[in-house]
Design a protein that fits this description.
- The complex is a heterodimer of chains A (about 170) and B (about 100).
- Chain A is an all-alpha fold and about 170 residues long.
- Chain A is built from 7 helices and no strands.
- Chain B has about 100 residues and is of the alpha+beta class.
- Helix content of chain B is about 40%, strand content about 20%.
- In chain B, helix 1 packs across helix 2.
- Classes of the chains: A mainly alpha (about 170), B alpha+beta (about 100).
- At the A-B interface, helix 2 and helix 7 of A face strand 2, helix 2 and strand 3 of B.
Chain lengths: ~170, ~100
Amino acid sequence: MSMLRGRLARQPETVQDLELAAESRYWEGTSLALAGESYAAIYLMGYAAEMWLKLAALRLDGVRPTDPVKSMLPAAKKWLQGQAGVMIDHEMYHSLWFWVTFLKEKRWWKGKPLDAMMEARLSQRARRLYGTWWVEMRYRPSMVLEREAQSVYDDVTWIRDHYRELWRL
Amino acid sequence: MPIKRIVRGTITPETERLLRELVAEWKNPSDDTSNPVILQEGGGKRPVHVYVVWEEWAGLDQLERSEIILEAFEEVKGKKAALEVTVAMGLTAREAERMGISYK
């Protein structure tokens, strides 16, 4: 059997890979939070949120579990800029705010917006999460307040709990 | 250069046989553990994840396995229900064990 990198790289990452990875990173992050490793916990849980938001956005266009993810990302950027006229830094497609904006705009464009309360809660959670988690944090020393780890856990858990509602039309 | 439609997966006599067997098992579940074991989680407010544990997957890659499962699911449960499936994974018993998937 080849080594891990070889096994992972054999096939392009698919929609269902991301969904399973999101669930794994969420629980790994939770375990780290319980062990007091707040910075690493935030890092992993933020990734889980990114994947759920990205998946919800892509699923609005009816992608299948076996569809490769990477090739769809530039089209999402192009749509948000060209069709919706929104310019947001996608941060190499890791930006939580980019995906939340895409999700909301795409639902409006399809004539199926989230209900007002749901949209407000999503924006509130995502805004706070965006203010805490950053993909580049991996290159920085651990500087975190305990309440930040708690709020990340709360926000990511909310996104996990409402994931299906975000993409169901 | 001509522009053509992409056909998902390649249908071979072997994949067709696996599809037919999976559909038959789904419609009439048996107690025979050599048959595919179909595991489903989620539903309701959660997305649907389907795992099929089957030694017959051994010669196929993950994408081919998933396509067969999705096809079978749609055939048995209908197109609308199939849209709820966000994970469709085919695993051999050993792979399932490695993923921590256990069942009775």
